[in-house]
User: What shape does this take?
Amino acid sequence: MRVITILTNQRLDQRIWRHSPFIPFIRWRRSLRRRGYIVRWVKNPARVSSGDILLVDHRSFVDWSISKTQDWIAARRDRHDRTVWLDQSDSTGTTQFHVLPLVDVYAKRHLLAQPARYLGPHPHLRVHEEYYDRYFGNAGPFQSAQTDARVTQDGEVVPLDARLADRIRISWTFAYGDVGVEGQWKQVRESVVGGYRYQATAQNQPGRGVNALFRSSHVSSIGQARDLAKSLAVRHGWDTSDGPLPLSQYLARLGSSRICLSPFGWGEMCIRDFETAWAGRVLAKPSVSHLVTFPSLLHPWRTYIPLSWDPEQWPHQLDEALSSHSSDDLAYALGTWPGYLSTTRSAEDFADHLVHCLLADSWCGHCPQGWWGPKRVVI
Assistant: This one.
């Protein structure tokens, strides 16, 4: 058996378990074992010992300087057959290419379909935040006080070296979150049986109206866009909330709507997108045609309503969607994902992707191909 050591500072307790990107490693450990891999968890970088494969969650180093992080990776690279850096940042436009020369694989949750931005002087900036800075006439790009200050604290952000693009891979999205689990005992049960809980709570029930149960806590133009969207939602009588809701109430209100609106946050995709799938409702969100993911679930007018990035356009666009019978087809197409997630096939596809695309220099056949990876189109 080969050992996959996962270094992460993320707690796998009830508070964040539903959102953990590492759920598949626990749920589907038998699929990994059949392929000859077992998983070992480490929370403290100082306790990482030699081994076969090291998967490094970038959040383990959020308080470290660039130089300190680079020194840590360089000192341990020869102790592992393969080092994989997991860029778990929410946006396609935030990068940590300063580690790229020091790792075997740099796996990012969401990748830009076109690499031009990564090759330029601002590879770490959110594409949609730049759009909203222009939209609201902000003084300069990316005025947010929270914009990657820790990443850039002791040096210039490094653009992509095209010669190292073969080290870049797509990791996996929030689609593997445990959005259907509401209680800790259910989480423990599913961990033991190795599956996901799936309940088609609303897929055969008629929904009505637009759900806009999102908040804005962003000190940025992204927050301004969400505030604008919220004011439009109130003005048009959509379902909104002034504060946080209990999970059960939130999911119930999600399921009573016909369309669930999911604006951009720090990233382009979020857990709400897959909560909408679990609820069997229509997902409406700003177009994400500029990004690629695994699994590839969001296809315009097939699985979601692609909206303009301009929130002022949303009422008109959603009115048109509500009057269209095709929206039911969109809900059905996206709603097949939670059921599929409960199958053996989904476990095998994830294991294929992990083993072939991240742990070897091959292709799983399930994720998109492009300018990244060993079989990339040369850029």
The two ends are 37 Å apart (CA to CA). Residues 326-341 form the longest helix (16 residues). Residues 141-153 have pLDDT under 50 and may be disordered.
